[in-house]
């Protein structure tokens, strides 16, 4: 997401997760023709290998280069952006030069450089804990609804179940991508989709024995809503952390998400059919806890990525210096990303960090 601008993070996140559903469909077709897990494994490995050459051409994140003070690489990256957008160096370089020689930013850079990784992580530990909770519960519900419920019913072929689920998932991603650009924003879109997921999870235990088709319909609705939650989290979580912590936060989010994905089927097998209904009630409670936790987080719609400088202003209440202009830190701040990073129509005369 750092490879695009703050005005296009939603599009970048949406493209990646919708691509995931296409991959689900492709793998299902391959599994249908392979019919052998070892043969399928080699096919998947070759399929994944097609992506590796692309990684060679992926540029480094301008946000990361600026945070790490790799100014030569940053200048080269910005020059390439300006060239692609049809702008000369005279239009953006003076602002870039003023930015990297800003005394206040230099002072903050020295301050953060003196802080140990341990101090930085402990400072963000409460929010990292929420990030871990979101990742674990979201993937727990996703695996439970997407694959656990599909395996419980013989009414539909497992291959068709995955294909239909992928289509429903794509619809959920599209609906969520529209929702996060409305007044609901990231936070309230997450809350709304989580609430609908919770309702579906609560209904399923009452119908899954007597009405298998109804169970499939409700589970697919639940998959639609939990897919919306997944999309929002992939966009929302990176936006609530500064650049220096974004990699760690994503790592925590993915790690705990994988834990949730692993324990979901293990819990089902351990409990058996006799006590399987208990899991639905427990997952509903976890969803409510997650919603309450997310309610405490800030909204990030129409805001650039949270930076270390924003964090500093939150902590010390000092005035902000933005290219010769001061802002009172007690006032609401909506500092945009440099225009050169915001859109294809670069207008560096209004560039701010």
TrEMBL record:
Residue span, Major facilitator superfamily (MFS) profile domain: 1-302
Keywords: Membrane, Transmembrane, Transmembrane helix
Family matches, as Pfam families: Sugar_tr (PF00083)
Gene Ontology CC entries for this record: membrane
Entry keyword Translocase: no
GO molecular function (one): transmembrane transporter activity
Superkingdom assignment: Eukaryota
Annotated transmembrane regions: 12-34, 40-58, 125-147, 159-176, 188-207, 213-237, 249-272, 278-297
Membrane topology, from the record: Multi-pass membrane protein
Keyword Amino-acid biosynthesis: no
Protein's UniProt name: Major facilitator superfamily (MFS) profile domain-containing protein
Species whose genome carries this gene: Rotaria magnacalcarata
């Amino acid at each position: 997401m750092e490879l695009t601008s703050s005005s296009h993070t939603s599009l970048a996140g949406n493209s990646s997760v919708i691509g995931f559903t296409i991959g689900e469909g492709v793998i299902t077709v391959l599994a249908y023709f392979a019919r052998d897990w070892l043969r399928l494994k080699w096919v998947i490995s070759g399929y994944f290998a097609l992506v590796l050459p692309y990684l060679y051409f992926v540029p480094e994140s301008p946000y990361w280069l600026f945070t790490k003070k790799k100014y030569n690489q940053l200048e080269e990256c910005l020059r390439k952006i300006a060239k692609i957008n049809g702008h000369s160096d005279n239009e953006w370089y003076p602002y870039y030069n003023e930015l990297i020689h800003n005394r206040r930013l230099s002072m903050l850079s020295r301050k953060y450089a003196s802080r140990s990784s341990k101090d930085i992580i402990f400072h963000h530990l409460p929010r990292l804990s929420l990030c871990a909770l979101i990742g674990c519960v979201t993937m727990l519900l996703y695996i439970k609804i997407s694959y656990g419920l599909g395996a419980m019913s013989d009414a539909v072929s497992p291959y068709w179940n995955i294909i239909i689920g992928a289509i429903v998932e794509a619809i959920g991603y599209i609906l969520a991508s529209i929702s996060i650009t409305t007044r609901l924003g990231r936070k309230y879109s997450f809350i709304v989709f989580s609430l609908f997921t919770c309702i579906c999870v609560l209904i399923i235990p009452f119908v899954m024995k007597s009405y298998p088709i109804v169970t499939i319909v409700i589970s697919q609705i639940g998959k639609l809503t939990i897919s919306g939650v997944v999309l929002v989290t992939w966009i929302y979580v990176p936006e609530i952390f500064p650049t220096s912590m974004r990699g760690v936060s994503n790592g925590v989010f993915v790690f705990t998400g994988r834990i949730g994905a692993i324990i979901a089927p293990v819990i089902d097998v351990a409990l058996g059919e006799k006590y399987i209904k208990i899991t639905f009630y427990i997952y509903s409670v976890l969803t409510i806890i997650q919603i309450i936790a997310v309610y405490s987080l800030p909204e990030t719609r129409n805001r650039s990525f949270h930076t270390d400088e924003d964090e500093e202003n939150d902590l010390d209440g000092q005035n902000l210096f933005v290219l010769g202009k001061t802002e009172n830190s007690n006032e609401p701040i909506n500092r945009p990303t440099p225009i050169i990073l915001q859109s294809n129509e670069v207008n560096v005369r209004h560039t701010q960090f």
